[in-house]
Amino acid sequence: MKAPNASPAIDNRRARHEYHILESVEAGLVLTGTEVKSIRAGGASLSEAYARFRGGEAWLMGMHVQPYRQGSFSNAEPTRPRKLLLHKEEIARLQGRVAEKGLTIVPLRLYFTRGIAKVQLGVARGKKMWDKREAAAKRDVEREIARHVRRS
Questions:
Q1: Structural domains of the chain sorted by starting position, each given as residue range(s) with its CATH number in brackets
Q2: Total-model pTM
Q3: 127: which of 43, 131, 143, 151 fits an S-S bond (Cβ 3.0–4.6 Å)?
């Protein structure tokens, strides 16, 4: 059950369109104070973000967080790399999966759980153009069926 004043989740709708999601993992996210306030206000975008591994650590690259209006000098760079909090075993397993040809790690959702920023990461394989057309056609058919069911 969601608390009435809970901040909304930020979804990466583009990821589900561009990739087949094979599995998902929840990770913590290291943020500054003004970044947290900006994200709670809905000022973040995951559409260009992806995860990288460096030195045994996981990093979220390309996530855009708008500068907080009331935060002057304390605002961080909007697209700076942000550290992901995962166990060593999870990092090793995900690195092994990414080593497979054509797999990548993309963020699916950004949300807060008990005041802590979390990111749902997905191990994904890129869709081909015909996959995208097939998904759109399937969606259209389901919409038509739903219309007919409502009418009858």
A1: 10-127 (2.40.280.10)
A2: 0.75
A3: 131
